[in-house]
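F.,

This is the one I mentioned.
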């Protein structure tokens, strides 16, 4: 069979980032059911197999062995061969008299597929969903991982799209309510029948009863719809809502836990050997612009680390009136991924965005922004070229505030509008934006701000006034109800409400006085 390069599995791989994550244990029962529902697997499973008498413990042990394969490099190949040899003597004769073997390609590959596929629902429900590129990478890594077993790969799909089709087709047309699946379901209804290899039964079975209900709750909500239908499993709307609330809590709490809680020991040891701190392989200085390249996939995610920028973009859009003339120009300083664009629809502006991040500018272009790569302290525009200048969440990132204000006011036409929002240079802003927000998962990227650059409000007003713009400040705060719903995964956006206090996030709006334009550059 074809052997893939060993370059894929390693510290930077998707597999190493997620396979050792203890949240994968939440899908133990789901994995067992998907495996034993396959007719080829069912035919090779004895009625007294640990897969049906000890499903949770057996799947946990199997996962540990698989972790050694995926994280073990050369030792992983040896462990894979031991797993293969362990399965050689496992065979049964089905009711039709046909000999069924655990190493049958259909059965063995499906068992492998169920393990690595569980990463997809785990990240969708309890973490950050994998994008298309990450899924393709995960699948390519799974091919290399499977090659370590040294068995035939003729049933293995060629790429992620083919695998997704294979998985859906298997769930819909191949999986069945087999004898092993029924035995597993009976164990769920009577967890007293589950056995632990070394705990006394009177100690083990109460825990098993709770574990059975909990894992069944997860499995019901995350199984493929065709599988639920085949097993006649009912998952009510109330069940789905409860699962979403539980998942939202896990998503928020999990990153706050120490690594020894979040990762299995095998994964932790491999990651320590590679001298990285999972899952972030690069630690950047505060306010490093390169972070925006690292987080490029987050720009348009409603629950990503840039979600707060979407909320502020909506407030910015509300402050901008319709274009005063045909061909009016709006210059968007540090436009990022173009988040302001949806809020300018129908207002008649030529939306020109300036940013230093190539990946952000590409996304801004996709959303109708005329993207220009440039520095906000040296704008590539003539004097009085813009009817509106927007500086959203940029002033707290620059080291030369007067230079940025001077450039913004220079390119603004007489009677043009300046709209900005930023963070105030106050203890409460530093506490909320850095100490608190950076510790709430996905609310703000850690290290994205340097609190020493937060904006002195009096200085900002003074600099604008000196350049002909009388700036009026308004404080902003998130709607508490909307924020709570968003944190629980129940809402897509959060309204930012005006308040008289400008000590945290504030917006500034002002018009340039007539007679303050200068000649073109």
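My design for it:
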């Amino acid at each position: 069979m074809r052997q893939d390069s060993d370059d894929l599995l390693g510290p930077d791989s998707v597999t190493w980032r997620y396979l050792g994550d203890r949240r994968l244990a939440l899908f133990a029962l789901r994995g067992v059911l998907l495996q034993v529902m396959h007719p080829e697997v069912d035919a090779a499973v004895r009625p007294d197999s640990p897969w049906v008498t000890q499903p949770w413990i057996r799947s946990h042990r199997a996962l540990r062995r698989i972790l050694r394969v995926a994280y073990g490099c050369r030792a992983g190949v040896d462990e894979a061969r031991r797993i293969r040899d362990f399965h050689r003597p496992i065979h049964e004769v089905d009711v039709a008299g046909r000999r069924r073997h655990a190493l049958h390609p259909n059965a063995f590959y499906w068992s492998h597929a169920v393990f690595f596929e569980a990463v997809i629902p785990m990240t969708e429900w309890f973490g950050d969903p994998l994008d298309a590129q990450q899924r393709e990478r995960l699948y390519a890594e799974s091919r290399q991982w499977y090659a370590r077993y040294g068995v035939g790969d003729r049933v293995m799909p060629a790429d992620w799209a083919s695998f997704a089709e294979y998985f859906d087709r298997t769930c819909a047309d191949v999986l069945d309510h087999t004898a092993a699946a029924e035995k597993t379901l009976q164990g769920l209804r009577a967890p007293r029948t589950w056995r632990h290899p070394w705990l006394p039964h009177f100690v083990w079975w109460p825990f098993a009863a709770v574990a059975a209900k909990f894992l069944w709750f997860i499995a019901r909500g995350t199984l493929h719809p065709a599988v639920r239908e085949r097993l006649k499993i009912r998952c009510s709307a109330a069940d789905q809502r409860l699962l979403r609330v539980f998942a939202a809590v896990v998503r928020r709490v999990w990153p706050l836990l120490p690594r020894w809680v979040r990762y299995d020991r095998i994964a932790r040891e491999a990651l320590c050997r590679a001298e990285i701190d999972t899952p972030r392989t690069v630690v950047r200085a505060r306010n490093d612009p390169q972070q925006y390249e690292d987080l490029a996939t987050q720009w348009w995610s409603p629950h990503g680390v840039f979600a707060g920028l979407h909320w502020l973009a909506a407030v910015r859009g509300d402050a901008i009136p319709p274009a005063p003339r045909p061909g009016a120009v709006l210059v968007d300083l540090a436009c990022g991924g173009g988040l302001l664009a949806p809020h300018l629809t129908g207002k008649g502006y030529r939306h020109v965005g300036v940013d230093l991040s190539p990946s952000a500018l590409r996304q801004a272009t996709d959303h109708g922004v005329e993207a220009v790569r440039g520095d906000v302290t040296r704008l590539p525009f003539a004097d009085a070229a813009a009817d509106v200048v927007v500086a959203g969440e940029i002033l707290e990132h620059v080291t030369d505030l007067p230079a940025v204000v001077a450039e913004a006011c220079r390119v603004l036409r007489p009677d043009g509008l300046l709209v900005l929002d930023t963070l105030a240079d106050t203890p409460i802003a530093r506490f909320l934006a850095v100490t608190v927000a950076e510790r709430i998962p996905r609310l703000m990227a850690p290290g994205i701000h340097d609190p020493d650059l937060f904006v002195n409000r009096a200085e900002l007003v003074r600099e604008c006034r000196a350049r002909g713009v009388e700036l009026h400040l308004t404080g902003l705060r998130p709607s508490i109800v909307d924020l709570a719903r968003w944190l629980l995964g129940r809402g897509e956006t959060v309204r930012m409400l005006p308040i008289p206090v400008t000590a945290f996030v504030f917006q500034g709006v002002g018009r340039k006085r007539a007679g303050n334009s200068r000649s073109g550059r």
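Residues 201-222 form the longest helix (22 residues).

Talk soon.
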